[in-house]
Amino acid sequence: MEETGQRRLKFVDFTKKDVKRLKKFTEFVEDSIDMYLQDMNDYFKRLPEFLKEIPKEHHNRVLNEIPKDIILTISKGNFDSESLAQIRKYAGFITEIGVSLDWYYGIISYTFKMLVDIYVTIGGAELHEIPELTHSINKALIIVLSLFTDNFMEKVEAQKALESLLKELSTPILHTWDGVIVMPLIGTLTSDRAQEAMEVLLNSITQYRAKVAIIDITGVSVIDSMVAEHLIKTVKAVKILGSEAIITGISAEVASILVRIGIEVEEFITRSSLREGLQYAIKIVEGK
Amino acid sequence: MDAAERLEIKIANEADILKSRNKIRVFIMNNLHFSLLERMHALTALSELTRNIFKYAGEGKVVADILQKPNGKKGIQLVFSDSGPGIPDIDEALKPKPISKYQTGMGIGLSGSKKLADEFDIESAEGKGTIITWIRWERH
Predict the structure, then answer these.
(1) Model ipTM?
(2) Mind listing the pLDDT tens digit for each residue in B103-118?
(3) Domain made up of A2-166: CATH architecture
(4) Chain B positions touching chain A (beta carbons under 8 Å)
């Protein structure tokens, strides 16, 4: 973390010179930031992002405390590892309560623009100092942006991890009886998921040396020809492995849909409930 | 909405400085089409000049009026008045000074306030109190 902090500063070439340039501006900001944030609160509160209901208990933190801290950090040019870590924490908090980071970053840099504008207008800087001051401020804003982006990337990674976990969970295999495995399918079967489910099932058959695989579709919300096709493929593949597939949990509606689609009854072994499916499966296993 | 077009605020202590800021913020939002930045300019000047009243005269008042040009454009006029010691040398007072040398509030000074205005006037003499007129017009 230390190194990335220093690396960040090096990357934008933020040096003691920049801190020096920010010094007078900092005094102005320190004196007036509370007032300006108050002014901007009205403006922020009307933005659609904000109207997306940020809970009232967070208003002060989101609109006052955090911007103030970040803005003071930027104008002081104080980027030690502690402040960098703090800004990342803020980014985390902001995303947790459901505020989008790019919107929030916009708030911060917009506030900054305002402060610089007023400072420049009222003559706080000599004319020749203005480009340098703006340059230093921009560097500092980039550092903050990169910290926000870090957090965002972390979130993206976390999201990916969550999605793959979800995938795993949604294709569970239950090993109920010697030689019998059950795969309860739940939710909407997309093509991806159906493909995934088939692969998982076939692997499990090999892994557990299952003679019978029960596919329970009680929890599948939508049955269409695509899903039916996948089921047929799966059943055929299971047969090739030398085992039997039983489909359970077919409701009356699903049955009529399947008939309408044109599925041949002989292609499937079916039982209406999981319980019956298990009974049949055990008979097969013990019979063989 | 029926909005008041004149607002008179007494400045007698430090708390009044912030109160006036809040009142004028609402006053502007109700009566004028100022952008956020323009509003902030007005409030900055207001804070500075009310602080001057408090610091140098102890008490005074600010009167806010909505002005209207013949072409329909509106603006805000802020008149700051006090019966304090007055400004002996107005030209000197209006000279821009480096910000950090100021001790008052944000230290933008008279010159800073003037820069934020479209029209600016000072009436003052030693021992005779001070009247400062600050005007800012809508841009569109």
Answers:
(1) 0.71
(2) 444 557 788 899 999 9
(3) Orthogonal Bundle (1.10)
(4) 21-22, 25, 29, 36-37, 39-41, 43-44, 47, 96, 98-100, 105-108, 111-113, 115-116
